[in-house]
Design brief:
With 232 residues, the protein is an all-alpha fold. The chain has ten helices and no strands. It has one domain. The longest helix has 31 residues.
């Protein structure tokens, strides 16, 4: 029977889902700490493998930092919708009279704040550990702030497509790594331009355009992918 309760606004639905997933993340601090710990461990291993030459590390640091950020994002993307899929709440969201793109975006936003945003905040520290010149620290921060939005949304799309596949981690990697290549190129080039005294603004503008485009297109694609995965 139809319910007499009025429908919530999309803003209220988004906020409720965001807070629900935020509380869920807070009850699992390991999900927040694992990407940061992975980032730290890999960054500390690179000087051991490449040697202690500061000039060489400073040259390679933009690429190293961005590749590790991509791998850290990939590591947590597979778990993005897993809990909702396993407990059946994802099916309830699909049956609710609200766009699945809005509820999925709320979960992705909470996930980004707990992973990508925190990685961005600590990235200057890791840059210093690799000998990244001071001129590149601010650009690294801004580029990762924009780039992790893209990485998280692309990872969410891959997770939505493979959520009903057991051990779909390899397929997830094959799906999203090619899509992440432009983000990696733009972010690395922006930091390198700043280090060399060039103008990174054009590359940051490209990253900003990718982030805005992803925010518009990716939620719709994620919602459609979740429905396909639930129906299959």
């Amino acid at each position: 029977m139809p319910s007499d309760r009025p429908l919530l606004s999309l803003r209220a639905v988004f906020l409720r889902q965001f807070l629900r997933h935020g509380r869920s993340i807070m009850t699992s601090p390991a999900d927040v700490a694992n990407p940061l710990l992975f980032f730290f461990m890999v960054i500390t291993l690179f000087p051991l493998g490449l040697g202690p030459d500061p000039a060489r590390l400073a040259t390679l640091s933009p690429g190293i930092l961005w590749v590790v950020a991509l791998l850290a994002s990939l590591m947590v993307s597979a778990k993005l919708f897993a809990s909702d899929f396993e407990d059946g709440s994802l099916e309830q969201l699909a049956l609710a009279p609200y766009p699945l793109a809005v509820t999925a975006l709320a979960e992705v936003s909470a996930h980004w704040l707990a992973t990508g945003f925190l990685l961005t905040l600590v990235s200057p520290l890791f840059g210093v550990m690799l000998g990244l010149p001071d001129e590149g620290l601010l650009t690294l921060l801004v580029s990762l702030l924009l780039g992790t939005i893209c990485l998280t949304l692309i990872g969410a799309l891959g997770s939505a497509l493979t959520i009903n596949i057991r051990r779909g981690g390899l397929l997830l990697s094959l799906l999203i790594i090619p899509l992440n290549v432009p983000v990696l190129i733009f972010g690395t080039t922006a930091v390198r331009e700043a280090v060399l005294g060039g103008n990174p603004e054009s590359w940051l503008a490209l990253l900003g355009a990718l982030a805005l485009g992803s925010l518009v297109i990716a939620p719709l694609a994620i919602g459609a992918a979740l429905r396909v995965s639930l129906d299959s």
